[in-house]
Amino acid sequence: MIDTMNELTQFSPYAGQLTLLEVPGDLSAMARTEAENEARAAAGMARTMYAYAPVSGCPDMKQCQVVMVLRDSSDEASARTVMEQFALDALAEEKHFVLLFPNPRPAGWNYTADPGGEDDISYLIRCFGCLRKSPLGVNGFNGMTFYIAASPSASAMLMTMAALRPLNMPAMMIGPFPGGYALPADALGQPAAAWVCGNPAAADYLKKADDVPETAAAPARGHWLYTGRTNPNVRLACRCGGVCMGGSACAGSQDVRRSAQSV
């Protein structure tokens, strides 16, 4: 979704560079003044993330579009590699959105939602929720957050979030799951807009969630586009083949750019 009604604002002194931001474990940074932009999360451990704000600015620094990219490492080099490999920084400058790179715990993403581990779903929501009080000086819009998985475990993490907290998953791009991953038994079966690469299990779940008939599939730029009956505005794009992203998701750089542009 591109805001064409507001003029661009160069809001951040940290624009044009990856910046390490604190993600507090408490909820004091989650204050909201707009009811429609509320994001609810549980408290957890204090963590960090990397962020990139475009030099070109954003149309509305109070409700900016956010693209969140999950990877398996927590250092700046890994965030920079993913960002530059898929030219996400250039796309952020062109489309005026903020990039976030959440940092996983040393044990990796808790994609099984193990209650004995860190609540990573709440951590991802806090990454979004703490933007307003961060040095970046921008507030994202909850309904325009697009998630990209750069590894199998990241794909599983996003699928678990879509299954358990669908209101916090407006759109995602995922690839294959790691071996042994299973959808949560208490998955809510709610639709989510998604770009699914080489993952039949995820595609089947999402097609069922949005009541997609097989006859709804239509070829579109190298993938199959499904429009469901539950919500025609929620679409599912499926593809297998192409250069692998992060060694997992079957997506080339143009696929990543097109999917991020389509939110």
Residue-averaged pLDDT, rounded? 81
CATH topology: Rossmann fold
Helix content: 10-25%
What oligomeric arrangement do these chains adopt?
single chain
Number of E strands: 12
Individual helix count: 6
Radius of gyration: 17 Å
Q: What count of domains describes the coordinates? A: 1
Order of strands, main sheet, comes to: 1-2-4-3-5-6-7-10-9-8
The biggest beta sheet is recorded as:
10 strands, mixed
Name of the CATH superfamily:
Alpha/Beta hydrolase fold, catalytic domain
User: What structural class do you assign from the helix and strand content?
Assistant: alpha/beta
Low-confidence stretches: 241-253
* CATH class placement: Alpha Beta
Gross morphology: globular
Q: Beta-strand percentage?
A: 15-25%
Cα distance, first to last residue? 5 Å
Sequence of secondary-structure elements: EEEHHEHEHEEHEEEEEH
For the record, the CATH architecture stands as 3-Layer(aba) Sandwich
Overview of this structure, please?
With 263 residues, the protein is of the alpha/beta class. Helices cover 23% and strands 23% of the residues. β11 (244-245) and β12 (249-250) form a beta hairpin. The longest helix is centred in the middle third of the chain and has 13 residues, at 152-164. Residues 241-253 have low confidence and may be disordered.
